[in-house]
Design brief:
The complex is a heterodimer of chains A (197) and B (392). By secondary structure, chain A is mainly alpha-helical. Chain A is built from eleven helices and no strands. Chain B is an alpha+beta fold and 392 residues long. In chain B, the strands form three sheets. Chain B has a 19-stranded mixed sheet that branches. Chain B has a three-stranded mixed sheet with strand order 21-24-23, covered by helices on one side. Classes of the chains: A mainly alpha (197), B alpha+beta (392). Chain A: One of its GO terms (molecular function) is sigma factor activity. Chain A: This is DNA-directed RNA polymerase sigma-70 factor.
Chain lengths: 197, 392
Amino acid sequence: MERTQLYNEEELLRRVAGGNEQAFSEVVDHYAPVVYAQLLVYLKDVHRAEEVSQDIFMAIWRNREKLPGMDNFPGYLYVSTRNKILTVVKERVMATEEPPEDRLHSLLTDPASAVEFKELMNSIRRGIELLPARRKEVFMLSRQENLTYDEIASRLGLSKNTVKEHISEALTFLRDYLNRGMDVILVGLLWLAMAGF
Amino acid sequence: MPHTAEYYLERLAEGSITPEEWNALQTLLSAAENDAAFAEVLDRQLQQKAAAPGHYPQAVQHIQQGLAARIAAERSTTQVTPVKRLTPRRWMAAAAMVLAALAGTWLLLPRKATQPGQPVAARTPQLAPGINGALLTLADGKQVMLDTIKNGVVALQGGAEVRVVNGALVYENTGTGLAYNTISTPKGREYHIILPDGTGVWLNAASSIRYPIAFTAKERRIQITGEAYIQVAADARKPFYVATPLSQIQVLGTAFNINAYEDEGAEVTTLANGKIQVTGNTLVNGNVLPVTLLPGQAAWCRQKELRVTEGDVEKALAWKNGIFSFQDADIPTVMRQLARWYNVEVKYEGQIPARTFEGEIGRTLRLDQVLRILTKTGIHYEIDGNIVTIQP
């Protein structure tokens, strides 16, 4: 799927600079999944991740007159995103003496809590079923067979980095899935089905 | 430090960071000279994510809605380019004009979102989703616009009081005289009415209902055009009849949906529960043959044609629940629904692409957002004012 480059980006950015909200929302559509997923990794809360994503895009909108002369818009966006993440990571890590409990992590690693939260465990299983085939395979080898990244990489003929990325993306997806609740995600899936993914 | 910035960030991302590592990370983060190292790791992670992004449609939708609201809010405080907003006085004047001229001028009116938190882009009103609203025509020909009234008495006629309660029209103190009211929704509006007998009617966009202000006759009779969902209040002594352009429906039970838009080619009446009997207005094979529906079934009615099919209640009622639901829908079918809800006209350039759609889309999205979803299947479009052109 061609996703990295936004079709007609120059023209879109010129329209954004001229105050065209529709063009802006096309740009947001294209880049928001990356920005949001990366924020969710560190914020671990879908609402916060959505809110901070909005802050980042709002700053782009406010500075829209700079856009036409820019030769690397994704670079500009990702630098703003990275700076914002660094700020929020600092805030979050400095805010508490101890790491806050991560429910997804404990469910995936601690059998006792998995029994206790049977319902949640079931939703995780449903979430795993929704992963793309290759990602699911990598994720299961890591979680169920406890293989290391290197072992998975050599078994599937992938690079270690690809394995890492699959697992990190699988975790982000599951976090979004769990955090958001089932009914909402179903609508999302219908949307995806409709969009032809 | 025993570990690198990358190590800590990964542990943090996984959620597996220990209290000791947490403290070490705090130390690292508080020294500004380490910022570059953290930034480098985050850059790399972002590049990887950008190469194969995940799909988060719900999140993106929320982000888009939030942004639209914030942009609208900033515009109203800065007022750099004054949008053609009507003042209350001029609004009243415009409203009076609308009453005279009816549909077509609705676009001039400032739109109000049905729910807070679902903002509508103010500068592109033709892209905004439909809202709650209708035009009430009283027995004496007087017309009342119900868009902005949330609560209050709208009219008194023949002893009956017409009130708006939480945005729905309600009849109280049942009057006597036989007078008829009509409620019509233009494109881009829907409305909820409670009839004098307690029957609930939900009108979709571009639809109308005509009914007596009191059901004093032996039978309860109403007329519907367009699309409506009707929940009939039980009254065994007074049978309930609905007349549509093409058929008569005798209600023997409770809830059903009528889709009788003339541009849809056929009327579809879907029964949610209870029992109804549908009779075509034209003869079928020389006979007037009513069909009886059981819950889940639908009556499909055209000129000289009437049959019972398996219905899909959920899909038939999707509009009432704020959703467009498509199943094997071709582009004209999809666009007819969008045209009614977003008050636009649809044109086709060249051949209409032969594609069918399946899925659901929220009716609170703006039109451009809905169309963008369709572009993912290779449809192209252009919006000019309130005309949408579909290109091959």
